[in-house]
Amino acid sequence: MTETRMNSSIIQSFKHFLHYYQASNLPCGLIIAHAALDQKGIHSLITHLEKEEPATAFQVNYDTEHHILGLLLDDCDLGYTHFYALHVKDFLEEKDRLMGEMVVGNFPENSDHAEQMLSRMINEMMIEQTNKQEIRVFDNETIQKTDKKSVLIVDHDNSIVHLLTNYLQRKGYIVHAATDGKHGLEQYQNLLPDLVITEINLSGIGGYQFINQIKNIDKQTKGHSEIMVLTNKQLEEDIKRTFEYGAAEYITKPFSLIELEARIKRLVEVTE
Amino acid sequence: MRDFLLVYGIFAMYYVIVINTIYFGIIMFSFRKITRIMKETFYSKYEFLSGSKHMPPISILVPAFNEELTIKENVQSLLALHYPAHEVIVVNDGSGDNTSKVLIDEFRLNYYKPTPVEQNTLSTAEVRGVYYNPEFPNLYLIDKENGGKADSLNAGINFSHYSLVSSIDADSLLENDALIRIARKYMENPEEYVAIGGNVRIANGCRISNGMVQKVRLPKKLLPMLQTVEYIKAFLGGRIGWSDINGLIIVSGAFGVFRKDYIIKVGGYRGGYPGEDMNIIIKLHRYMLDHNLPYQIDFCPDAVCWTQAPDTFKILGSQRKRWGRGNLKNMLELGTRMFMRPRYKVMGWLTIPYNIIFETLSPYFRITGFLALVGYSLIDMTGWKIVAVFMLINVLYGTLLGLGSLLIEELAFRRFPRIRDYFKMVLYTILMFFGYRQLGILWRFMGHIQFFRKNNSWGTMTRTSWNEDEEKEEAA
């Protein structure tokens, strides 16, 4: 269930807008709500909001699969986003459509990465589904408190990705995967996983650059992810360089799943 | 007069038939060798080798002249090659554009003074500086005065740290495992392999992103399509066979791996004329045979390098004229000295004579022969049947050879996922004989004229950014 969370249509449809706000450093507000709506409902919501707050430009998207309503407000601060969310809540409650909580967030007040914030807001909502019909302000730290650890696997070899994904999912990790360096970085930026397992032989950008960029992202977001290298490269030179770049583990292929899991446990659970 | 024209015309037709027959023999060798290559590559674990301690380190030399559009992606994909230990040395040959700046900005390279030229190295144009960033320990940029491609390669060889060097065109893309495939071949017999060439394929029409060919497709334009078929014929039908009898005369400048010590022993790349890639191989053959050393120059068809083919007549013509000039220069300078000399074995008896008689001189025989036949049939209209029969034989024979090469492609590589691609290639194999081949011969002839008039420019070559497709995708 949680593995599919990245596929929310809201993320897809807001991606480019958020990218734009972030790049041009413009503020924007995000509201998501757990609600059951149909095409007509969305329509009347839009007319309702246009009547109540005619001066604000907004985007609406509804994720029919997960029943999440997403709103993107142009050029506003957190206070106004919250105020606006009250309108939305009024409307939903009146129609008895609200199924759970609502989360509001603002770029740049809640997070300095708009896209990341949205995917985390949605993640949180889907992991801790409560029935409390309340508006909650997004807290940048909350995701760290969930006890499921997330792992990002980057390897050009599909069979390795499949094997690790299945194995680690069964062991209770939340697993994401990418098959090249560029895609891997994008994923990393949006997810900030607890652990990254990567090959050095990547395409697009090489493994060293990939690790380097992760460290740069970490610096910006003040986050931290452990990096484990799982590679075909067996040269001492590579091992040395990898540790210099800040990786925590170096495992060469062929590898043992048991050993790998033990090392993962040590990395992500002891550091808490 | 009439009889003379007929006799000469028929002689020219036999000439063409002999060419095709030799080529047929070569293709037979190709078939013999391809089964061995298939077995070898099928059972090799390249992924594992790409991290092995036992693979020799390789210096990749990238001569770059006005390559600002493609150089960044290229270097990035070269740095990301799956190989245990390699360095990338970009040699900026006094470009007039921002080739250097693009790289310096992207990789935050710092300037270092060039070390003084040591003994036992090749002489080159002046090196202005070396750029390096410890964060990218495998990347070097050499900035030097303009001196041509051969000169850049020599400067790269002087600077390189490893004993194997690989020359790569700045406008081509290597597949991730290309280097490891060549290196595995090399490790079969490190003593004897002095040069190994890679397979060059045409990337026009393919979908490229992240510095990699993602989807293999045939080109949509006419000229690149004809070149695709032509390259398959030359590389798979021709070079595999030539390498089987150790008579390979060229390792494409776009991608090859060489023993550095022998390149230095033969004096490095020859500047001043195009065709330096053929020149170095002939020199290697000659050096090894002169010194009675056992050696092999091989071709590794599964190591693939993708290149952009010219898609206008002007640029293709300038490329072919350049090849014509280079070929003529090499044959005059080196070929004549090895022609029919028993000491040079296959090279002396077959490769060099074949190249002189059937490649270098072919425009003269073919053009005069064709004119003779046309003249003859104008004088005597009843003779057209002979002419037609010969022409038909020529086309059929040529098509047969083309089909043979396509068969090798289909047997061993299957790069084109769609069946209709093969039909399309068969069609163009036949189409090639109606206009394209003749044009090629004309261009070669014009190249010779340039040579004798001492016109020695490199000609025009334009580049388009590899990112073209990618950008379109993002916009969509």
Structure write-up:
The complex is a heterodimer of chains A (272) and B (476). The two termini of chain A are 25 Å apart. In chain A, the strands form two sheets. Chain A has a five-stranded mixed β-sheet, sandwiched between helices. Chain A folds into two domains: 143 residues, Alpha-Beta Plaits (2-Layer Sandwich), CATH 3.30.70; 121 residues, 3-Layer(aba) Sandwich (Rossmann fold), CATH 3.40.50. Chain A has 272 residues and is α/β, with parallel strands linked by helices. In chain A, helix 1 packs antiparallel against helix 4, helix 2 crosses helix 3 and helix 6 runs parallel beside helix 7. In chain A, strand 8, helix 7 and strand 9 form a beta-alpha-beta unit. The longest helix of chain B has 41 residues. Chain B has a domain of 229 residues: Spore Coat Polysaccharide Biosynthesis Protein SpsA, Chain A, CATH 3.90.550. With 476 residues, chain B is an alpha/beta fold. In chain B, helix 3 links the parallel strand 1 and strand 2. Chain B is globular, with a radius of gyration of 23 Å. At the A-B interface, helix 7 and helix 8 of A face helix 3 of B.
How would you summarize this macromolecular structure in one to three sentences?
Chain A has 272 residues and is an alpha/beta fold. Chain A is built from nine helices and ten strands.
Helix/strand layout:
The complex is a heterodimer of chains A (272) and B (476).
Chain A: H1 9-24, E1 28-35, H2 39-52, E2 58-63, E3 68-74, H3 78-94, E4 98-107, H4 114-127, E5 135-137, E6 150-154, H5 158-170, E7 174-178, H6 181-191, E8 195-198, H7 207-221, E9 226-231, H8 236-244, E10 249-252, H9 257-270
Parallel strand pairs in A: 4-5, 6-7, 6-8, 8-9, 9-10
Antiparallel strand pairs in A: 1-3, 1-4, 2-3
Chain B: H1 2-42, H2 46-49, E1 58-64, H3 71-79, E2 86-93, H4 99-107, E3 110-112, E4 127-132, E5 139-144, H5 149-159, E6 164-168, E7 172-174, H6 178-188, E8 193-202, E9 207-209, E10 212-215, H7 222-244, E11 255-259, H8 260-265, H9 276-290, E12 296-307, H10 313-338, H11 345-360, H12 362-379, H13 384-413, H14 419-452, H15 468-475
Parallel strand pairs in B: 1-2, 1-6, 2-5, 8-12
Antiparallel strand pairs in B: 3-4, 4-5, 6-11, 7-12, 8-11, 9-10
Helix pairs in contact in B: 1-7, 1-12, 1-13, 7-13, 7-14, 9-10, 10-11, 10-14, 12-14, 13-14
